[in-house]
Amino acid sequence: DVRKEQEGARIELLNGTGTPGLAAKTARQLEAYGFDHIAIGDAGSYDHRVTEILNLTGKGYTANLVATALKLPRARVREASGEAATLPIMVDLRIILGYDMTLQP
């Protein structure tokens, strides 16, 4: 996908649930769809009910591709605003995994 390559989005997957390994498994799922530059970690809390994709740097095309790959509605893609928009940006897309996240077998 030429446009995805042009955006070259750096993705951060944060586990917002108490499920061990969820971010790593989700990263492997995204890698199978051809995404790379994926960092994983834990969110600040484990009480995220729904998965959200924060578009921090205007990489909307890739954000929507990620939503499709994870079988999430596009309404889960949000543009960064407020405090998130003023933080130093090390990634383009921050995905906070919630309890609704299901992995493909």
Structural write-up:
It contains four helices and five strands. By secondary structure, the chain is an alpha/beta fold. The chain has a five-stranded mixed sheet with strand order 2-1-5-3-4, with helices on one face. Strand 3, helix 3 and strand 4 form a beta-alpha-beta unit.
Assembly category: single chain
Number of helices: 4
Q: Give the beta-strand count.
A: 5
- The strands making up the biggest β-sheet line up spatially as 2-1-5-3-4
Brief synopsis:
This protein has 105 residues and is of the alpha/beta class.
Summarize the SSE layout with pairings.
Blueprint: H1 2-7, E1 11-15, H2 22-32, E2 38-42, E3 52-55, H3 60-69, E4 77-79, H4 83-86, E5 93-97
Parallel strand pairs: 1-2, 1-5, 3-4
Antiparallel strand pairs: 3-5
Short descriptors:
alpha/beta, 4 helices, 105 residues, 30% helix
